[in-house]
Design brief:
Rossmann fold, 325 residues, alpha/beta, 7-stranded parallel beta sheet
């Protein structure tokens, strides 16, 4: 029986490069994006039942969904995060989980730069004003000689740092596992968590979500942030306590913020965040470039192919998965 690979990433289509790669490797490919499932009245649980591998987007693969996938052997997650997959459930079932670190680092880093510029020059507010018939020329600020504070200095954080340095910014970073060779090469400075909060004009988050980072940026942390600073989050929504952030934006403790990731996506219509004119929100598009999506999806598909053909895949999150077989 030909093995079947389910593709749930919404930007991947039949006849595309991932479809051709999987077909050339001898697999049947089934596309089941959220929109396709809604149109056909099928749930995620329904479509995983006969899947041997999954090229996954951001769908929530809970323990119940994984239990329904009796044939499943591997997830190839298109992206740097894999918190949408119940890792414990996958490991118990003997399902490998892979991800694609580095594939989207340039795209996310450029989006961070775009968000900083939007905040610094009040671009969204100015566009809205012009559309409303006004002609305001409010003063923004230059990035040169400002301090960029990075919480997390992995591959994306390093790329952001290089872009910021090219613009003449000072870069101060906190990471429990700092790459000191990178610091020496670039001139990026190391600081404690509190030092980065206190000195950053722009504070950008580049950390994974786990129990230690959930609501890392809470009311207490925001009270330590330099007055007039901007917060940029392209990491994971739950890293920021959004109620505390809204308070800080309303009372002027922060000059503004830009979020590409949120605790609940899509952002609810009645969300308090929608009412803040010093907040920029984008719809989780940091990695949404043609180049990043191509790199990420092809990497994920190759990892699925390797696993189903009996090879150890790259970027394996749970090497102990074999114990669940």
């Amino acid at each position: 029986m030909t093995m079947r690979v389910l593709v749930t990433a919404p930007y991947l289509k039949p006849g595309g490069e991932v479809d051709l790669l999987l077909s050339d490797a001898g697999f049947d490919t089934v596309f089941a994006s959220p929109a396709r499932r809604e149109a056909t009245g099928r749930s995620l649980t329904d479509v995983v039942r006969d899947a041997d591998g999954i090229v996954a987007g951001t769908d929530a693969f809970t323990g119940d969904v994984i239990e329904a996938a009796a044939r499943l052997k591997v997830f190839g997650r298109c992206g740097v995060g894999y918190d949408n997959i119940d890792l414990d459930a996958a490991t118990r079932r003997g399902v490998a989980v892979t991800y694609t670190p580095g594939a989207n680092r340039r795209s996310v880093a450029e989006h961070v730069l775009a968000l900083m510029l939007n905040c610094a020059r009040l671009i969204p507010q100015n566009i809205a004003s012009v559309r409303a018939g006004a002609w305001e020329q409010r003063s923004g600020r230059e990035l040169e000689d400002s301090t960029l504070g990075l919480i997390g200095l992995g591959s994306i954080g390093k790329t952001v740092a290089r872009l910021a340095l090219a613009l003449g910014m000072r870069v101060l970073a906190h990471d429990p596992r700092l790459d000191h060779d990178f610091l020496a090469e670039t001139g990026v400075e190391a600081g404690t968590f509190d030092e980065v909060l206190a000195e950053a004009d722009f504070l950008s988050l580049h950390i994974f979500l786990d129990d230690s980072t959930r609501h890392l940026i809470d009311a207490s942390a925001l009270r330590k942030v330099k007055p007039g600073a901007f917060l940029i989050n392209t990491a994971r929504g739950e890293v920021v306590d959004e109620e505390a952030l809204a308070d800080a934006l309303e009372n002027g403790a922060l000059a503004g913020a830009a979020l590409d990731v949120l605790t609940e996506e899509p952002l609810p219509i009645d969300s308090r965040l929608r009412r803040l004119d010093n907040l920029v929100v984008t719809a989780h598009i940091g990695a949404a470039t043609e180049q990043a999506r191509s790199r990420s999806s092809l990497m994920a598909a190759r990892q699925v192919i390797d696993t189903l053909q009996g090879r150890t895949p790259g970027n394996l999150v749970n090497p102990e998965y074999t114990e669940g077989r």
